[in-house]
Amino acid sequence: MRRMRGSMRGRVRTALIFMAALYLTACGVSNVVIEGSFPTPNISKLPLNVAVYYDPALTEFAYIEYSETGTEEYNIASGQSHIELFSTILPAMFDRVVVVDSIGEAEALGVDAIFAPIIEEFQLALPAKTKLDVYEIWIKYNMRLMKADGDYIADWVLTSYGKTPVESLRSVEAAINAAAIVALRDLASSFSLSFTQVPEVRDWLNTL
Amino acid sequence: MKHFLGRNRLGIALLLLVSLASCTTTTIDEFRQGETGIESHESVVILGRRQASDYETRSEFVSCVGERMTRGEGAISIVPEQEFVDAMFPWFEPRTAPLRTRDLERLMTEASVSDRMTEFGVRYIVWLDGFTETTDRSGSISCTIGPGGAGCFGFGSWEDDANFDARVWDVGSLTNVGTISTDATGQSYLPAFVIPIPLIARVEANACSRLATQLKEFVNGS
After folding, report:
1. B82-103 mean pLDDT
2. What are the boundaries of the signal sequence (chain B) (predicted)?
3. Element (H, E) at B87
4. Phi and psi angles of residue B120, each rounded to the nearest 5 degrees, phi first
5. Is residue B18 predicted with pLDDT exceeding 70?
6. Distance from CA of A190 to the nearest CA of B (A)
7. pLDDT for A29
8. Please, where are the H alpha helices in B95-202?
9. Which is nearest to A147 in space by CA: A198, A107, A102?
10. Residue B17: pLDDT band by 50, 70, 90 thresholds?
11. In chain A, what residues touch B95 (CB-CB under 8 Å)?
12. Do residues A200 and A176 lie in contact, with contact meaning Cβ atoms separated by under 8 Å?
């Protein structure tokens, strides 16, 4: 009898733990780490020696989407995926690219320019809120290009957009990741194709 | 005897439902603007348009059409969409992809683009644009669970409408050689008498199959 009671108590405990876990899962924030691969752009290289400085604001960038009741719903970490993206596109755009830990380090290297991108704004649109059958992501960037001595060459804003349709048997997290990858590819295409058309960059290139 | 007639009636009703469910109407409209034909060493790439703000051409539909074009009589070599877009990066992204043949002409002046196009042996680019919409949802189904068992009762139905346009660009002459439009509609039913029985109209699958057949004939010049 005692053994039976013990077994019953054990089952109740397991059920309670399971229910508590379910409750916590339902209420907790979902972490989404953006992951994907990016192709190398087919563009002509510029004969430049460029240092890249990734600000911690970019490398550790995370966006939190709140539910309508104000609780944290999704925590989207996209810093590392941005580093991977720039590590793919910059060597295809410039003759030599070196990653530096500080602007000062770049100055000492005697490079032609220092490039420092940061994310200014991140927006997520979920179908549950927009009533559209697509997941959408907008990202606004501030691109900064400096001379080796730290003087500004150009400082321009770039936006990227990505969307992916609602699909059955695909989780919200997977859809957010897919939309973010489209947005990152959009950034790569617009950045690599419009770089020399930024007026300040064009003027600076003409002086070289 | 009465019981037998009742069973027969139920069977006929079910058969009718199944036949209705499998009934999809597909209309194909072809508009030819130029001569076509393809050599055995040449290939076709099918790309989905993704410029619209409220929908995008599903990559599954694009690959379905491509896969069906590689089968049967007059099979055509198809370059997979993602492989082509990655190899051409960043020139065929939603924001940078050519919208008109004039844009393609400009794009082909880029050595890297024309070289890759030659490597793939692309003779035609087919731009697919469209989506499948579900409308006219009606009925309701309720499911209950109790100590004696579980079951669903009710009836639901909806209509699917797939609309896709395929624009064919000749990479050799840099012109639009034609457009094929497909419109497929079908009614799906979901009767539930203890167990829900889905009678789904395969609208998008039919649109894919018919469009692929028509495109294959169009590209082959027949």
Report:
1. 95
2. 1-23
3. helix B81-87
4. -75, -20
5. no
6. 8
7. 87
8. 101-107, 111-120
9. A107
10. low
11. 161, 186, 189-190
12. no
Residue A13 domain-assigned? no
Q: B183: buried, middle or exposed (CB in 10 Å: 19+, 13-18, 0-12)?
A: middle
Q: What pLDDT score does A160 carry? A: 96
Q: Look at residue A148 and give its three-state secondary structure.
A: coil
Nearest Cα residue in chain A from B133: A133
**Cα B111 from Cα A11, distance rounded (Å):** 70
Separation of alpha carbons A7 and A99, rounded Å: 61
Question: Is A39 part of a structural domain of the chain?
Answer: yes
Give the CATH number, domain containing residue A197. Answer: 3.30.160.150
Q: Is the pLDDT assigned to residue B15 strictly greater than 70?
A: no
Q: Which residues pair with A108 in a beta bridge?
A: none
Closest CA to B197 of B188, B205, B187: B188
Q: Which domain holds residue A129?
A: 29-207
Q: In this structure, are residues B152 and B196 in contact, taking their beta carbons and an 8 Å threshold? A: yes
Cα–Cα dist A163/A181, whole Å:
9
How many other C-beta atoms can be found within 10 angstroms of the C-beta atom of residue A62?
14
Query: Which residue of chain B is at minimal alpha-carbon distance from A93?
Result: B90
Q: Do A163 and B56 touch (CB under 8 A)?
A: yes
Lowest mean pLDDT among A152-166, B7-21, B134-148, B150-164: B7-21
Give the mean model confidence (pLDDT) for residues A142-165: 93
How far B59 CA lies from chain A's nearest CA (Å)?
10
pLDDT exceeds cutoff 70 at A9 = no
What strand order describes the sheet that includes B43-48? Answer: B24-32, B175-196, B149-170, B122-146, B43-48, B77-79
Decide: helix, strand or coil at residue A102: coil
- Give the mean pLDDT of B17-45: 85
Tell me if A128 is assigned to some domain.
Answer: yes
- Return the DSSP state at A44: P
Q: What is the mean pLDDT of residues A170-190?
A: 95
pLDDT at A18 over 90: no
Q: Do A189 and B96 touch (CB under 8 A)?
A: yes
3-state DSSP assignment of residue B77: strand
ipTM of the complex: 0.80
Nearest CB among B87, B95, B110 relative to A189 is that of: B95
Cβ-nearest to B116 among A42, A188, A190: A42
Question: Per-domain residue ranges for chain B?
Answer: 2-220
